[in-house]
Amino acid sequence: MRDEGQARGSAAPGAPATPKVPELSSRGPSPVSVRIRIDHYSAVHLAAATARRIALDSGLPGALPDRAAVLASELASNIAKHAQDGSVFVQPLPLRPGVEILATDRGPGIPDLEAALTDGWTTTDTLGSGLGAVRRIASEFTLRTRPGAGTLICARVAVPGAPPPPGPDLAALCLPLESERSCGDGWAVADSDSGAWSGSGSGSGTESGSDPGRRTVVVVDGLGHGEPAAEATDAALRAFRRDPDLPLPALLAVLHRALRHTRGAAVGLARLGPGEEAEYCSVGNVRAQAVGFDGVRSRVSGQPGVVGWNLPQPRVQRIPVAPGSTLVLHSDGIDPRWTHDPPPFLLRLPPPLLVASLAHDFRRSRDDATVLATGAPTPQRGGPAAAPKRDA
Q: What confidence tens digit (pLDDT) does each residue in 301-318 have?
């Protein structure tokens, strides 16, 4: 039986199948991510069914669950027809009700993007609705392609008319070990200007803090994997959500106390403000790096120890985050060698496509994996809300 975060489309080579929709984690309103390998055309049905169910579980009304299913079906079908080594990731939107569908492959890329985004265009004997339909019906659409290397797409479905979340875009993927049903990793975010939080664990949000324009994020990697690791991670995320605006060393100490009766975890805490510097406080194997167009500017790892067992004196490190940069945190389920010589194409990806690329190309299959990317926030000011992003 496949776990909820890693599902394949085919039951037998060359044979049609009716795949089972993978079960989701029972953690709460934001379950772990579901990855569907597009290794057979039957995976198209699995992607559509998974997107529809996540949309229903997220409370999307009316025809929106069917719209999410169409998006997932079209993106999976594109990979099955035109690319190789592709995956579709499906999950709730990180900061509001909705569904996010990420598609990535190592295919030939799209040589004529303008034509490919036109309804009715096709290079195969199909109706050719494809990417033109995806861009038209998605609430938000982002695509990047590199001829000869592959394509990355993010399509989101949100409630029409709902205001966009405050602050810069944030993206994350949280994937369990392939042989496990429970994920020992987790993440959460708290924006102090609104008191809103989101993440991959259980619980409900509470308003806290008074400093506008601050974002605090946490990535937790429970020791080992499976249900005991998931229990440690959930305990850490619940403690984080109770008061995320504490100074980072104090917040890490709170998590340490919450994890004393668990197997413990590695924890990375980062806080970004409107300036050009982030605070980072970490124990264990959660890494942080600032990514800009000119390369990976900073690489920071945690202090030795295990939160819940042997916490060292927490130390705050400073990470320069210049305008236009992205702060990336990830557990050791993502190979850190991605920072050694990243191509310019990777460095220029927006957060949703960056996390999809790292999870697809640098995932260590023998461990849970979480990767989170965010820009630095700016204080909210009066005026109309920003329009949803539609990018190609």
A: 999 999 999 999 999 999
288: left (phi over 0), alpha (psi -120 to 50) or beta: beta
Tokens of 154: 């993010």
- Whose CA is closest to 138, among 91, 101, 86? 101
N- to C-terminal Cα separation, the chain? 37
The string of pLDDT tens digits covering residues 316-333 is: 999 999 888 999 999 999
Q: What is the pTM of this model?
A: 0.85
Whole-number Å distance between alpha carbons of 205 and 1: 34
Any bridge partners for residue 214, and if so which?
none
- Percentage of residues in the chain with pLDDT exceeding 90? 61
Single-letter amino acid code for the residue at 340: H
The residue whose two tokens read 């496509």 is 353
